[in-house]
């Protein structure tokens, strides 16, 4: 970050990778901590690996002193230029000492050492991934340099009573002048990006944990006093994560202490620093009064994610940042499996696929498209993307599916054992999984190097006289930025065939003696493949890509009734939902341009109305089924790409659904769910709340006055945040004026609760239509709004630009110009946050001409500026192409 773009931006290429010229065996760090001024003393034991000078990275830090084997180096004995400190050394082994000064309170970019909260009450903390350590001291700041760390912190005892760093505690004591010290030794060699420290006034909750292999571990969760009572759910999630990783992967925790710290000032979700995880408070704090059910699930997932990194990321790390998905894709996969085990397998799959389609598919369809393993970057922070994380997880899922449960476990055992203590590559991962199973998985490497979402087309021909069913599968990946030629990938297609009554048919492929299971996985590993099923008595309905067996867009020419069969009968919850989504897509096509007419909208509303009345359909699944693809996903189906029309068509289709179900049924269901209302967090209660929300939203489309009263009452009576926030959103959509007092009440009730206020901003930022921009501008003037806090920026600007298509994409372009202004202001404070918000422009080229023109003008203008950060410049340059 923060070097402005007048400095030449260099491109880093995977093909240029070279192993480090010097290894760092161990690192001794001493910190004299202060809010304005912190002094960092380092002593590195360096060991030569190649005939080159020592090169250390350092940015935005002041070098006070440099020594070689204890001898001070004069000006002529080193070169310091462009963020690199170079020292030529004859010996093969040496000790390099440095003393540097850093200024935490001035660090608004939240990278390196910075201050969270106010000067007089806040605390100091670090964020090093990806390249933050170079903002703390001079170091070969790359993930393939692994070292043992000994860290001593010194600070004023009153102001900084708690001193934490990663590793095991190794003594504390008093110093003169009211100061104290604490030392930590981490026995596990680690790269610099996993270093962390925290210092300040924090409270804690603790738990004694014993690992499966018998280690006693003290678990501590730390937070500021006003929120420490909201950490219990995180502790509970942590304990369950530790047990799950022991059970599922045989992986135990490996230090005597494990610290987790919550901060309100954080650029990302959380960070897996060895022994000292640091969390955005949004993913750690939870209580019924201020957190929604979704947020409880997010806390559980992110706590697990960071904990799982201890093996997939820390014990085995990445050779270079191109391999980021090696740890992130794998850890997301592990986290998703954990959440599925804790909750519901099919609901989790629905949630994950919906996220992939909402976040990753659009990313991969625009100018920011990149492979899961990119081949070049100019700013690595811009590659913590849905592609690297979510698509990366899908790739691991395909591998796991290919190997089966036991085979995958064997492969993971070998991967962890073989590469423990290594900085590994994607190739290493595939090799371990393959070797453990006596198979070669290298064909899957192509998935890591190729951007874009493959289109999988299926074509069916039924031959009644021969009772044969032929399915032809073809693949094609559209060209993407910098990749015009695309190759065929191995695509596992899990499938079943159903007869018209919804019975799954036993499958016998041409050439096989007997029929086997009712589900098979066919791998399409070339451009095209045909398969023939025998003994098929009547034209079947295929259920393809079951469980979403590959991250592709499936194109099959389903008749609406066929999807209706799957929607009613598919025993798999995920595929049932998927059939509903496909059918909803067709139904949407029937609702364009103000008409609501056609076979699909009829079939969709009929099928859902029937399921609505079917007591065997569980509440949670029903709520999902009643939710058609969102406005962002539907963009793909609307050739005109006009967000207003997309919204209007989607609303029309929902209205058709609501009238089909009927006001009496909706009212009755709402009342039944209302009577069951409680604040309980069990799955049943959560499902009831979710369904209640869907029912109220549907009701609001056909019975507005009554829905308004129900929403008002629900807001007043809500026992927890889920019901309260849902009521607020519905009320505001139905009747913004009627919602005004409720918003005022909420604002007042949660004064001082940052996470609740974020939701207050976000709900309003997402209210659709022309009036949205004006609303955003008045919200910016609220006392609680600040561009300095990443969560606040996300909740207002991020929600508006990314989750409010009809509001953001105003035809007159006013919102684009407004956002451009804000991006410049945010960039001066925090480049990572500015870059992330700027990705909202990713889809501009696919807008209708009027909007496209005004978006283009704004993007081009911004991209031509020379005073922006490398982070923002990189995004704009790629988006503007
Ligand atoms: N490794 C963190 C995770 O668990 C994300 C850190 C990203 N930080 C950044 N500055 N890009 O996903
Ligand atoms: Zn991660």
TrEMBL record:
Keyword field: Aminopeptidase, Hydrolase, Metal-binding, Metalloprotease, Protease, Zinc
Top-rank taxon, per record: Bacteria
Catalytic activity: Release of an N-terminal amino acid, Xaa-|-Yaa- from a peptide, amide or arylamide. Xaa is preferably Ala, but may be most amino acids including Pro (slow action). When a terminal hydrophobic residue is followed by a prolyl residue, the two may be released as an intact Xaa-Pro dipeptide
Protease in keyword set: yes
EC number(s) on file: 3.4.11.2
A Pfam family the protein falls into: Peptidase_M1_N
Cofactor: Zn(2+)
Enzyme class: hydrolase
SUPFAM superfamilies (UniProt xref): Leukotriene A4 hydrolase N-terminal domain (SSF63737), Metalloproteases ('zincins'), catalytic domain (SSF55486)
Gene Ontology BP terms: proteolysis
PANTHER family, per the entry: PUROMYCIN-SENSITIVE AMINOPEPTIDASE
Recorded family membership: Belongs to the peptidase M1 family.
Protein's recorded name: Aminopeptidase N
